[in-house]
Model the fold of this input.
Amino acid sequence: MLDNLPHELTRLLDGIKEIARKAGAEILEIYHHGEYDELTKADETPVTSADFASNKILTEQLSQLAPEIPIISEEMAPTSFETRKQWHRYWLLDPLDGTQEFISRSGHFAVNIALVEDGWPVMGVIYWPVEDVLYFAVKDFGSYKQCGDEIRAIQVGSVADPKRIKVAISRVQNLQTVARYLSAEVEPEFTKFGSCALKSCMVAEGLADCYLRVGPTGEWDTGAPYIIVTEAGGKILDSQYQALSFNARESLKNPDFFVLGDQSLAWPQIIKAHATKRKY
Done:
């Protein structure tokens, strides 16, 4: 299917795959060397010099690849909504998704790059440096996993018994926090893994049936996963089963959300909708 990809989209996709690899290589060098600065941001989340090093590579090289496309990154000073609401398209970046996983040395961290057009991601790349694995998707052209030179299409799995589902959750997530949103009839098989993006990719390639994210995230955490999961046949919805939004308000924070695989399932009967109490 990628053979039919228009030339301009091929150029952008090849470019951001290579840029993601370069940023990942820089993160990996810092990771293996073991020496980096660790800070705490205003929202009390960690950030390291590896985040900033990756951000520098991404922003500089994306600006060379497509100078006309503006950038939103977790590690950049925010652009006012008044300005960015005028943008038809922009890059949405998480230079190091899973900073805490980087610090704890689990290896479960990734580089996220999404191209958003008219409020929706249309291209996304997620690079897992430790395993040298790329996940990528382009709107209407499918989702793919690349290991070395081998590229294969991926899709969400089928669930034979809706009472027995594989649920991806954070390595540090309290099981009870997640379990309370599952129907009492469900007997979940929990898989703990780091990186929001990589857990979404687990659903996209059928290694998990769903991923419940309960806790704060930003739009950069869901940009690339959104298009990869969607093109693989799944959905990412907020915790009230409504569509997520991108660049639709001043805040770039996300509500709690669900990454859902097999769309033949009655997911609202499996995972209870709930309203997020945090302010956005």
Notes: The longest helix spans residues 7-33. The helical segments are 7-33, 49-65, 81-84, 99-104, 175-179, 196-204, 223-231, 267-270. The first strand starts at residue 38 and ends at 40.
